[in-house]
Amino acid sequence: MTTEVRNTGRTESPRLRRELHLWEAVGISLALMAPSMAANINPQGTAGSVGRAVPLAFALATIGVLLIAWTFVRLTQRFNHAGSVYGFVGATLGARAGVISGWALMGTYIFYSVVTSTAAGIFGADFLGALGIWTNQPQWAPFVVSVIALAGVWALAASNIREGTRVLLAIEGTTVALILVVSVIILIKLATGTAPNGNGIDLSVFTIPSGTGASAVFLGVVFGFLSFAGFEAAATLGEEAREPRRDIPRAILGVAIFGGLYFIFVTAVEVMGFGTGAAGIKKFIASGSLLGDLGSQFVAGWVGELITIGAAVSAFGCALACIVGSARLLYALSRDEVGPAPLGIVSARNGVPTRSTAAVATTAYVIVALGWFVFGVKPFDLFVASGTIGTLILLLVYALATIGAAKLLFFSGERQVAAWEIVVPFLALVVIGYTLFRNVYPYPTGAAAWYPIIAAVWVVAGILITFVRYAATQRAGERLMTEEGLAAGTRAEG
Q1: Could you tell me the pTM of the whole model?
Q2: How do residues 443-458 score in pLDDT, each as one tens digit?
Q3: Across-strand partners of 6?
Q4: What CATH topology corresponds to 18-483?
Q5: What is the rounded average pLDDT for all residues in the chain?
Q6: Are 121 and 145 in contact (CB under 8 A)?
Q7: Which of 87, 288, 337, 423 lies most in the core, judged by the most C-beta atoms within 10 Å?
């Protein structure tokens, strides 16, 4: 029987173990961002808003993400905490803001675990159909595969994180490499006029189609943010990295820069490969696996199938990273007595918060069950809904973290970075604020009208927790201030 011990004073045993290196931190950020999965399914959502200008929307998202990455780099150079923004924001803006941020980011990761397990189901069911293993599939077939995938995710997330991050990095790296090779082949055929569908290079993908307004562009940018989301996940390993103030910032910035270059290039190739006309964009939006379909058409059928199964495995890895990240956040909140006491413990056997892992995995199952059995939504519709809701919550988290970083670095009495850097958090807040504004005004209609409401309900629940657990929230804030050297008479380690 596994022995689990509560860790309340930060001096008891067992604790999270410091055994991870740089590439393992890169692994969880890269896996949660899941560039191979994202490139195969997220751009369809963007194309629905901006048509051919998908690469432009991803370029705008890249600018915003790099501005936000500055926040996480600066904060992780100073702090290392399993609660990520819970620790960062709590130490800079106060206990209540910290708890709200931690709760919100946990919600984002849980919704993203639904997004990615559903994507694994969509790609997996498509692959089974292509092999003739499961033909004439019912509409709910992807849900069956996603439920099985989520069970595997739960099992792996409850095991040793070190081995898990290595697997995540290997899976994602291999699939991304294949996608880049196929993208280069497609680009060469487009440039030389040998594309099988007669398409060629068309730089109009970087321009906004006539009649497309700013609101539509920033609705498309949301799927860009969704594709990057998780680049900051390495921050949740702050208490498990050997050199957290060196390796965590490097992992976060490196993954953000790579993601920007990768997404702009790949989405440009995808749109040009399908064609920038109305017919091409229609096929683009209807595609079940963008690079899978293009790989089959431009290279060979087996290449497309390999990319599709690679995307399914990538989605599985991303779901695993989501559960790992959300479990660390729940563990940190509960360890500080804001959450349920039984969830603030780690396993004496493997140093993993197994009970908080079970809690977040169960929540993901509940969301899938509600979508499948109660609301009767299609798998792709659940993917879009969960992705949008999670991203709206995430943008609020980014805003709070950015404000906290600005307060600490420029307005805490002793400026700690170059004065000119203040423009970075200012621009980041402009991008975040405008993106949020354009997602609620004009207010969306149909099923999309529920997305901001559900996101708001999750955030309000976090606010209510700070009132219900007021004393614990205040104690957690005082502890964070003291431990991070921000309380009177203390000084943080450099």
Answers
A1: 0.83
A2: 888 888 999 999 999 9
A3: 345
A4: Amino acid/polyamine transporter I (1.20.1740)
A5: 85
A6: yes
A7: 87
